[in-house]
Automatic annotation (TrEMBL):
Residues annotated as domain PIPK: 9-395
Name of the encoding gene: MSS4
UniProt name for this protein: 1-phosphatidylinositol-4-phosphate 5-kinase
Natural source organism: Sugiyamaella lignohabitans
Amino acid sequence: RVLMGTKVSEGHVNYVTAYNMLTGIRVSVSRCNGKVDRPLNDEDFVAKNKLAFDVSGNELTPSARYDFKFKDYAPWVFRHLRELFKLDPADYLMSLTSKYIVSELGSPGKSGSFFYFSRDYRFIIKTIHHSEHKMLRKILKDYYNHVKNNPNTLISQFYGLHRVKLPFGRKIHFIVMNNLFPPHRDIHRTYDLKGSTQGRRLQPQDSKKAVVYKDLNWIDAGESIMLGPTKKRQFLDQLEIDVALLKRLNIMDYSLLIGIHDLTKGNTENIRDNTLQVFEPGSATISQTKVNELRKALTTASPTALAQLDLVLNQYERNDFIFYADSGGFRATNENNEPLNDIYYLGIIDCLTPYTFTKRVETFFKGLSNAHVTISAIPALEYGDRFFKFIKSVVVSKREGQQNVIGEETA
Ligand code: ATP
Ligand code: CA
Ligand code: CA
């Protein structure tokens, strides 16, 4: 039940698309990275570079296996964003293009977007609707400034905005962003929270493989985000700042995606073994047990190899970021700020939907189905307030009822 996806190798229906996306990224990103760094200017935010690939190649673009056109949007801005997000440029290209194998999650949402993982599972490529593409271009400056002023933002980290077009084909817009979930730990429960109740319960038959629960499941299960005073303040302060931006930009329909790793459960060996089949051996997707075994063996045999192993694993720690610092996530704490057994992997996702677009779609569906059904197409301000209020209400420093068990507090 892990969100791993199926391998996109030759013969897969989306192989050509994935190949073109990765080839385009490789060529355009390495071209921009190859230049001497310089400060951003206003034009950088609206810039777009076109590349035409064909089987024979020319002096500007190397030959590719297929004919296609590629557009890179605001390359300099994304170069600077990747730097703010502390990505190593060589690493980024390696992850996305070292081999043309990515895995596809298919289309988990209702939107029809496709998701691909980089082969090391660190990055996600998501195809987006044209309205989302326009939104990101419109807000790019605000987003950039927000990231600059809020290095710990919970909003999705965007690393690139691109488009591919096949001859006579559709234009496919896509973004590259961070995968919130780690390659080296099982996620035991996953929730996509919006703070709304309308249709927010996943029924058992709703899903077969990857189970992503919703608000009402969260409430049914009596879940909470356990954070002591220090982490609670860090988290809610950042969330409030992030939501304020989304409200101001008239964005809605985003969620807090939260994956919970329970350290007492650890990793399931056979899930990891499947993972190894999906991903090439040599990628960092290996089990914690295997890592520990390796570490032990290397301590005496080869200290340099041990250092290398730690270097690779550190890519997932991301110690520079508060919410991704505990093994890639944010560890639960108790009322004394002491660590608990859950690690939260969380962030605000799907945050490029303009209010007008949601409204149009929902009005359309409303017209088709039952007119009496009340549908929550509420403006961005209300959406943001409701979202923040809900998340705030589920962050607790002490579990309900625990005080009675311990008996240190009276009602
Ligand atoms: P819809 O508009 O119907 O909600 P969508 O196609 O826009 O769907 P998202 O809401 O962005 O898709 O994501 C769908 C699911 O994909 C999420 O619930 C989550 O399981 C997974 N997902 C999305 N973004 C990330 C991410 N950054 N890291 C890990 N998983 C993600
Ligand atoms: Ca969504
Ligand atoms: Ca969406």
